[in-house]
Amino acid sequence: MRWTLKPVPTQETIDQLAKELKVENIVAQLLIQRGITNYDEAKAFFRPELSHLHDPYLMKDMDKAVVRIEQAMQEEENILIYGDYDVDGTTSVALVSSFLLEFYPNVATYIPDRYSEGYGISFQGIDFAEDNDISLIIALDCGVKAVEKVQYAKEKGIDVIICDHHRPGDVLPDAVAILDPKQEVCPYPYKELCGCGVGFKLIQALGASKGITTEQLVPYLDLVATAIAADIVPITGENRVLAYFGLQVINESPRIGFKAILDQVNKKELTITDVVFIIAPRINAAGRMKHGQHAVALLKETNLATAQKYAQEIEAFNVERKSLDREITEEALLQIQNNQEEGRFTSVVYNENWHKGVIGIVASRLTETYYRPTLVFTKSGDKLAASARSVKGFDIYNALEECSDCLEQFGGHMYAAGLTLLEEQYENFKQQFEKVVADSIDPQLLQPEISIDAKIEMDQISPKLMRILKQFAPFGPGNMTPIFMAEGLKDTGYARGVGEDEKHLKCALYQNGSTPIGAIGFNLGNKMGLVKSVKPFDGVFSLDENEWNGTVSLQLKLRDIR
């Protein structure tokens, strides 16, 4: 692991903020590193308010979208809420459709089939709209690059409103309105909304025209928080506010669909991390293993018994997904081991029989193992489809853009993307992708990095510090859990291996006679010898709480030692 210490602000700046906020210097340093330099910014960070959300009408085309939707309702048109099959897409569809159904009955939902239709707006989806006399499609979490599909809809007399957060291409679709803050010409001040976040801005604008306040829309924020967590967008600015209030809804008054999921797991209070690992995989499993419409049905359900039935079905999909994920990951790792050329900058694997629904998860697993930009391909109809994942600091979307002459279509973000190509282009693409990455990546990025916020002395760690750090939540990109480094550590002699094959490390650490603090290091059992050595060592960790027999104590969550 490569340890990188973040730049330390000047002592004068730290002292000034610490004095203004009446906090310890270590807290002031962490805040400054997050762009917080005065009392008002700190107040907004620690106490998010709905008033901090931006006016939805600042988003380009919002006025056009609202006018067209209101016209559709006045003229009793049929409206189709169309979204992608992942968590961001299905939550977006559940959000906008449930809101519109509060006032207007002629609303249907549509999630494309991952296998027969693929990502985004499909010709089949537009045909469905035509067959059902639908004259307006609201596309969520997709559509900003669907130039041909939107033209096809227009030729059939169907208008399209696009609510997306992906990067647009050079040519925009001829839609009635395009809501996407990543458009260069869009003046919206916050650019990092997820698809469900853009959907929320739409219902915020529609609600305003009906006298509905943002406070009245808070029950919808459980969906937005889930999408923010699952799509791994920055939890900064507006996303922080949406996630903060959304988590409150999940924990205090979750919708029936979430309650049905949570009834199956023993967890009292969920964090954003819990949403990522408990709720999101189950919602995703529907689209991966069966059909995303199952997830929409669960998220919209208002009867608990029916929701529990849906949740049980989705749990079965999730169990099947986990089994396939393990099996395909093992095959992919073996393929890399057998074919890996010395010095390669990428990992690209292919098996025509791999399940398309889990190749994204497999790509993530391979990236964790080999720490290279990774592509996992499978057969999809008469083409090959792939999920791409990247390493920290490398923009895989840009790399794919440079290989676009080999591709049929692609889309995504800096760290995750999807693509399709013709089978005869596979080898050519594989070589081109390797060359693009080799020519552009900083070799340092091929070594996993631990980004350290601050050095700390063990006697600075206290329950008071822990209480303040808990208020930094919700954590995520742009506001990760604070990571500390302490030097000259020693073990009390308590160190032992725990878990299967003793692969985890449990110990109690002190420094220069300080009071020992318990520590757990997951997958650090191989460092046992270093800890038991008489020589002092350095450790990187976050602060955690350990609850045992009703007693809560401070604990170091070790990330690495050396």
TrEMBL record:
Residues 78-228 form the DDH domain. The keyword Ligase does not apply. Belongs to the RecJ family. This is Single-stranded-DNA-specific exonuclease RecJ. Keywords: Exonuclease, Hydrolase, Nuclease. It holds the Pfam family RecJ_OB. Coiled coil: none annotated. It comes from the Bacteria. Residues 452-560 form the RecJ OB domain. One of its GO terms (molecular function) is nucleic acid binding. SUPFAM superfamilies: DHH phosphoesterases (SSF64182). Gene3D superfamilies: 3.10.310.30, 3.90.1640.30. Residues 349-438 form the DHHA1 domain. It comes from Flagellimonas sediminis. One of its GO terms (biological process) is DNA recombination. The keyword Hydrolase applies.
